[in-house]
Amino acid sequence: MLHLHNDELFNILVGKISTAINRTFLRAFANEGIDITTEQWSVLTCLWRKDGVTQQDLCNLTLKDKPSMTRLIDKLERSNLVTRISSLSDRRINMIQLTEGGKSLEQKATNLVQSIAEKTLSNITTEELDTSRNVLKKIMINLQ
Description:
The structure is a single chain. The protein is mainly alpha-helical. It has one domain: Orthogonal Bundle (Arc Repressor Mutant, subunit A), CATH 1.10.10. The protein has 6 helices and 3 strands. A 3-stranded antiparallel beta sheet has the order 1-3-2. Helix 2 (38-49) packs across helix 5 (100-120). It is globular. It starts with 9 loop residues before the first helix and ends with a helix. The relative contact order is 0.11.
């Protein structure tokens, strides 16, 4: 049985790291004039990899539920970063596509995220990072 001190509880530590990362990205985006949230960035990243996917595909890729994804896409659409296009095979299905504005953010946002990631991981060895990645993957599997 694993026993942890109150100040070392894993969920608290992970929550603090998540909050710190989110805050860092939001601040960096704002400083660069990129008006998106980290959640919106996660959706845009999926679309930069493969544009024109279904809303359900985005839910699966980001592990978000349908109502949350609908709100995210609504906000991205209002910001003219994505658009919904009815599927030709099934009009009940919307394909989410990047607009020119959404496409134009890719390089700037990706470079910014990459520089933050490099700074964040600067004093961590490859072995430590691999171990951390493996542990976190196992935790995700245990939670499914």
